[in-house]
Amino acid sequence: MKRNRNEIISEILRVCMKGASKTRVVYQANLNFRTVNPYLELLMKNDLIVVSQGPHVVYETTEKGMDLMKTINQVHSTLAEYQEPVPSPTPA
């Protein structure tokens, strides 16, 4: 099942809650290095994650990012309540 943009953003924010390298974000959010860059740039531009430079670059979710992640998860949870179950195929 293909994830939508909001699900990917929420997953990146979750991975970065305690700080994460780009490699960790790629692997834990199930992305690749080419697709992760635009998401990280978008999140940094909107102050949803911050970057700390040290011996390694670490991305960390901001308070604003935590609020967004919670809101996205709440919306998905609410929508799931209204989804009708898909009937299983009956054997012929």
Could you characterize what this model shows?
The chain is mainly α. The chain has a two-stranded antiparallel ribbon with strand order 1-2. Strand 1 and strand 2 form a beta hairpin. Helix 1 crosses helix 4. The longest helix is centred in the C-terminal third of the chain and has 19 residues. It is elongated, with a radius of gyration of 16 Å.
Tags for this model:
mainly alpha, 92 residues, 54% helix, two-stranded antiparallel sheet
Q: Can you write the helix and strand succession as a string?
A: HHHEEH
| CA-CA gap between termini | 27 Å
Gross morphology is: elongated
Got a strand count?
Answer: 2
The secondary structure category is mainly alpha
Going across the biggest sheet, name each strand in turn: 1-2
Q: How does the SSE layout of this entry go?
A:
Blueprint: H1 5-15, H2 22-28, H3 33-45, E1 49-53, E2 57-61, H4 63-81
Antiparallel strand pairs: 1-2
Short synopsis of the structure:
With 92 residues, the chain is mostly helical.
